[in-house]
Design a protein that fits this description.
The protein has 101 residues and is mainly alpha-helical. The protein folds into two domains: 61 residues, Helix Hairpins (Orthogonal Bundle), CATH 1.10.287.1480; 33 residues, 30s Ribosomal Protein S14, Chain N (Irregular). Helix content is 50%, strand content 4%. It contains three helices and two strands. It has a two-stranded antiparallel ribbon with strand order 1-2. Helix 1 packs antiparallel against helix 2. It is elongated and about 65 Å long.
């Protein structure tokens, strides 16, 4: 089980990212628009820098829904490899069978 503080920190980052998503997108569109004057684009860059760091989607870490583990994460199932194996052994994941030969 991952540290509770790490999991909660990641949840705050997800919430902030959703809150500022539209604002960040608008500022980035302004910055990347080559037709606008350089001063306006520069001001948009400064406004983007003023936004909270944790509002950037890049700072979000994929974590297991069950254990909070950050490594060995399967995106499709939102589980770590360890949680996937445990749930698979108990037959709680449809279509997943333990390999044997």
């Amino acid at each position: 089980m991952a540290k509770t503080s790490s999991v909660e920190k990641n949840k705050r980052r997800i919430k902030l990212s959703k809150k500022y998503a539209n604002k960040r997108m608008a500022l980035k569109m302004t910055i990347n628009n080559k037709e606008l004057p350089l001063e306006e684009r520069f001001k948009a860059g400064l406004k983007l820098a003023e936004l909270p760091r944790n509002s950037s989607p890049v700072r979000i870490r994929n974590r297991c829904e069950v254990s909070g583990r950050p490594r060995g994460y399967y995106r499709k199932l939102k589980l770590s490899r360890i949680a996937l194996r445990e749930l698979g052994n108990f037959g709680q994941i449809p279509g997943l069978v333990k390999s044997s030969w």
